[in-house]
Each structure stands twice: as structure tokens, then as C-alpha cells.
Amino acid sequence: MLVDIGCGNGQFLGVAMQLGWEAWGVDLDPKAVKTAQKTGATVIQGGFPDTGLPSAHFDIVTLSHVIEHVHDPLAALREAFRVLKPGGHLWLATPNMGSFGHVRFGADWRGLEPPRHLVLFNNNSLEIALDGAGFIDIKQKPCLAQAAWFYQSSLRISRCQDPYDASASGLPLTLWIAAKLVDFRVAVSPFRCESIVVTAKRPESD
Question: Each residue of 127-161: pLDDT tens digit?
Fold first, then answer.
């Protein structure tokens, strides 16, 4: 059984069910909940860390770019721990303050997104938070080739353009090449990816 906290419109829930999972979702937005329920998944309206989910109920909890939006990320991680079965796994993705892109663009880096993003991590601080919430077997996962997207959005922000505007300026060739080189570099330096992707486990016995 899987639960996606911050499930949005439920697109991931639909994929999970196609793969054979019994899928649940939680989202704060009532419109998103209504849309996600059309997938056939069990979707409830709830906050984070106040999800309203049953304890020790799920084999997997997924948090895709959610933890950066909460005021108390440690309480949120403890909630994810609570709803997992002993031996269950957490999958988490969040922007990486230690990324090459943040170093390059500084205050214009796409991952900052003030005021929507409240707390951001690098790999070390996220591992400390996960450990503090009780998780073990914390593992960094390979990241996607995503530097060009982050670089393009960051460049638009630096030019006071809408980062979501597809009609706005694209990447100059030199910056596109730099982004592609970064994607190669993070293959050997995953701690410098634009996003952190980790898995962690609730111990078999607490």
C-alpha cells in the first residue's frame, strides 16, 4: 500500500495503481483532492504534518517536492514515519541547496521560490533531519538530467521574466552547454544535483 502526500491532481496515483499498488493520496487543496479522486484512489483532504492518516498503515510514503513547503519539516518527517509500517520506505525529492545551479544563480536560482518554499536542504542537512525523525538506511538516489530546466527558469528569474512562460527567452548556447556539462558532472557528484532524491526506511522495530 502506498500513500502520496501532497498528491496534487493524482497523476502519480494513477500510475501507481496501473503498476498494481493500492494507492492513497493526501492534499490540502479541495479542488486537487476532487480531481485526484477521479483516479479511483483513496484521496483525503489533509495538511502536513496533520494528515489524518492511520498509523503504521503504508508500505511506501512518497513526498515529491512537498517537504520544502511545510513550516516544520521535522514534524512532517515524523508524520511520514508514523504512517509507515515497520520496515516501510520513504521516497522523497526536494530542491538541493548544494546544487551547481544554486551556486551559479544565487538568489535567482529556481529552487528557492520564495515565498512558496519555506525550508530548503542540502544532502547533509536532509540526512540529519531524516535521522532525527527515526529513519535508517538513508540512501541518495541518482538524479535526473534536469540542469537545463533549472538553468532556463533561473535565467528568466534573473531577467524578471515569468519562469513558467514558455514564450520567454531560452538558454543561450553557452549556458545550455554549461547545463549539459553539469548533468555529466552530477553523475559522479550526485550531491550537487539540482534536486535531492533519497529513500529511507522505518526500522523493523522501534
Answer: 999 999 999 999 998 887 889 999 999 999 998 88
pLDDT for the residue numbered 187: 82
20-29: long-range contacts at Cβ-Cβ below 8 A with a sequence spacing of 24 or more? 21/60, 24/53, 24/58, 26/51, 26/52, 26/53
Report yes or no: 25 and 41 within 8 Å, Cβ to Cβ: yes
CA distances (Å), origin 32, targets 11, 28, 48, 69, 137:
11, 8, 15, 16, 33
For 7, the grid coordinates are 498528491
Burial class of residue 34 in the structure, from the number of CB atoms within 10 Å of its CB (0-12 exposed, 13-18 middle, 19+ buried): middle
The answer to whether the pTM exceeds 0.85 is: yes
Kindly give the interhelix angle for 147-158 and 173-185, rounded to the nearest 10 degrees: 140
